[in-house]
Amino acid sequence: MVRTYVFEDEGGDFTFKRKRGASRYFIIGTATMDDCNLGERLLTLRREPMWQGTVLEQFHATTDRQRTRDQVFDLIADSDIRVDATILDKAKTQDHLRADPPAFYKQALYLHFKYVIPRVAGKHDDLAVVASSLQIKKMKGALAESVHDVVEQVASARRHITAFHQASTDPCLQVADYVTWAIQRKCESADDRSYKLIRHLIKSEFEPFKLGPTTYY
Questions:
Q1: Which CATH number fits domain 3-206: 3.40.630.10, 2.60.120.10, 3.30.70.1350, 3.30.420.10?
Q2: Closest CA to 106 of 42, 149, 137
Q3: Average pLDDT, the chain
Q4: Has this prediction a pTM greater than 0.85?
């Protein structure tokens, strides 16, 4: 029996139009690990700047300084976690999903987890899936239910549990944030500086809409 943890985050947004600031892609990224020791190492790293008068409430790749990013990526790169990503080209998303962001999110989760979960947790294992809570109050309940429903559909583990937390509450969710951000930077702006640091940990980058011939906007 193995106990497996899958921490999930997403990159991109639910804006389905071409406009400044809107992402081209919506990405589901996961960091899978057999224990949470990497999170403990991140907590130690986060406490160190206090001695220089800097308090970090959490690590967040988008807003962290480059020096901080370098330190976090060093720890991640030296770990043995598994990274997977599902990358959706939003412009190729069909009308009914573009009109219903929670349904789009659930579809993205399903495409991701139906591939990843059978590969990381067998029928004799215990599985915990912890998703990062999107900061969209009116959709939080529906999104949390989507995580639970999808895992129920695809998991064959002896026991599986789900949780939906803010990334600030769990350093392992911040790992998922970092690896997803690195993949997003490569996809959105061809900036692969951080991606190269974690490339050896990435087991899949699935692009289900890549071959779709129709662009809707």
A1: 3.30.420.10
A2: 149
A3: 93
A4: yes
